[in-house]
Amino acid sequence: MKDIQANTIIGNIKNTLHQAIIGAFEQARANEQLQFETIADFLVEVPREETHGDFSTNAAMMMAKACKKSPRVIAEILSAAIDATTAGVDTIEIAGPGFINFRMHADWLNNCLAQIITEGEDFGRSDVGKGHKIQVEFVSANPTGELHMGNARGAAIGDSLASLLDLAGFTVEREFYINDAGNQIEKFALSLEARYLQLLDKDIEFPEDGYHGNDIITVMKQFIAQNGDKYLDCKPEIRRPVFAEYALVKKLADIKQALSDFGVKYDVWFSERTLHESGAVTNIVKQLQNEDWVYSEDGALWLDCRRFGEEKGEVLVRANGIPTYFAADIAYHQNKFQRGFETVIDIWGADHHGHVARMKGAMEAIGYQSRQLEVLLMQFVRLYQNGEILKMSKRTGTYVTLKELVEDVGRDAARFFFVTRSADSLIDFDLDLAKSQTADNPVFYVQYAHARICSILAAAAIAGLSPQSDTAHLAMITEDAELSLIRKLADYPDEIIFAAVNREPQRIAIYLQEVAAAFHNFYAHCRVISDEHDLSEARLSLAQSTAQVIRSGLKAIGVSAPEKM
RNA sequence: GCGCCCGUAGCUCAGUGGAUAGAGCGUCGGCCUCCGGAGCCGAAAGCGUAGGUUCAAUUCCUAUCGGGCGUACCA
Q1: Could you name the CATH architecture of A9-105?
Q2: Which residues lie closer than 8 Å to A494 by C-beta, 6 or more apart?
Q3: What is the ipTM, given to two decimal places?
Q4: Chain B bases having any atom below 7 Å from a protein CB
């Protein structure tokens, strides 16, 4: 992972130190103290242990081989040559196998806090994205059933990632791809028809591979309430599209509502059907044919995926003339790029991983770069209930819905739960435990810190105290617990950048717990409102900044920041 | 069989090419004349196994064991 050193409080110091170290290398070479060709990619980091200083570099160890000297010897030479006064460094030490540790002047964290306060609500925002257009497409569930736990996870990750990218300076759009065409709609129509007939007392067998969920029975009951039995003697070819259209509208409305209740708002709801109707799907197949990416076999048209390293081709148009999902998906992604996105991120379930390589290959085939399409694969959510695995299946209709999750566990707790885990991990979700332990969800630990601060600020206002952040006030902040909290707050913009660039929203959930812990520790060790008027007002500034960071971070992951709990 | 993901504390999960691997829950022990105890402080407990690369591996590579997913003219 390349070190990201953005234009942030911490990033700027790292950059300055980085330059100072390079300067020291050059000087040592000029003095013939060190001999080397190029300077390796060393890191300037904030060490895990505070006893190792405020910043640290592995430069001496990275260059040991090139310089043919021991790391500690190189560190000695460098530390004598480094001019880090501009960064605010007080002392430089050599430690361990050859780390060079920098300790800043005592007031550096106070200056950090001043800057945090100056930036206010914008603190955390940065410009590393340079306004580049990026799209995050997530959930995109078939509108043939209800949203389930897997969709909930996708929603939590996708929405959070989009927010983080926005904070990091990208121009972001959230999109939901509506699979309202193709095979599953045919099957859907057959299932609806069967339910329709069954509800009207016809003895009809339900399709084996149909959609067994109770929700579509509800939909057809509503349909009958509105339209009666007038489709009973109608030709199947006539009534099936009517059922499907009716149900799609209903189901889509349900999906929008469930996502909205989960705190997710999309910029675009994109209909697959429009791609077929506009001719985009047939056009993309023609384009690929013209460029010799397509071959015929067994009556079907295949994309030659062997040209990008796959073992075999993939069907674009079936022998029956109907294009596959794959063909539509290529047209869809072409459409995305035509809309000006430089990068599109798709969040898919692990069951689609076989689709990744051929989609990326297809992007090359239609003239884009495969890296412009990023697929974030999300492992499954394995549900436990009564100690047993609950097998989810949309086909059989046994699954826990997003709606139930929000009702039983709560939106904040559910979102925090999902966004705390990396997309890579297979989650074991014990529903009984989740319900019974709702109060133990770490989200409340974070929210509690926020509510506590709000309460303090309110009490302070009544006492006639207000946050003051001029230099004289901030200089009164000297306790370890206070400084540790500032240090944690100062990390915020870099945490956002890291999470956004690496597509790891879980970083922020973890970070917020660390902020809350640092605050609770501060609270336990330092009285905010005390007899010392000026110190109280300085600490109020710190508390207020903490609340602001928590509020901003929680917002990014779609969790509320209540003032009272 | 082949491909992808994952094996970190009793449980659920973070994390990292570096100097002492973390949190929540659970267990054990402390802390309320005081701003919110949904809190604070402390203890026990862990990188599946075996090789390799490296100054340095839990992290990268290989093998192996275990789990998940995929391997359709489904999506």
Answers
A1: 2-Layer Sandwich (3.30)
A2: A4, A6, A8, A10, A11
A3: 0.96
A4: 3-6, 11-20, 22-26, 34-41, 54-56, 67-75
